[in-house]
Amino acid sequence: MQELRQLKGNLNPNDDVGVFISSGGFASEAENEFRNSHPHIELVDMKKLIELWIEFHSKLNEEDKILLPIIPVYFLAK
Fold first, then answer.
1. Where are the domains of the chain?
2. For 10-44, how does the pLDDT look when each residue is reduced to its tens digit (9 = 90+)?
3. How far from 75 is each of 3, 50, 70, 72, CA to CA, in Å?
4. Residue 20: what pLDDT?
5. Which of 47, 51, 57, 53 lies closest to 23, judged by CA?
6. How many C-beta neighbours within 10 Å does residue 8 have?
């Protein structure tokens, strides 16, 4: 929560949007406090980050695609 509040304090409430990414997800207290905050802070957990990565990967230039590749992994079922 402290890091989210620090981010909020650094944003201009009229112009800025913050993005906070956490691989461990967010406590419900954080989600409730920052979901409709001004300035807006978008909370991105690992699932959402992967969804966004897949959704927008095709829009990256080729140099960036090399830095952030999507490599399919296949599993064989028994």
1. 2-67
2. 998 888 989 999 999 998 988 888 877 888 889 99
3. 38, 19, 16, 10
4. 93
5. 47
6. 19
Which residues lie across from 21 on neighbouring strands?
Answer: 44
Query: How would you write the chain as a 3-class SS string?
Result: CHHHHHHHHHCCCCCCEEEEEECCCCCHHHHHHHCCCCCEEEEEEHHHHHHHHHHHHHHCCHHHHHHCCCCCCCCCCC
Tell me how far apart the alpha carbons of residues 11 and 77 are, in angstroms, rounded to a whole number.
49
Phi, psi (degrees; rounded to nearest 5) at 48: -65, -40
What digits encode the pLDDT tens for the residues 47-77? 999 999 999 999 999 999 999 898 888 889 8
The confidence score (pLDDT) of residue 45 equals: 93
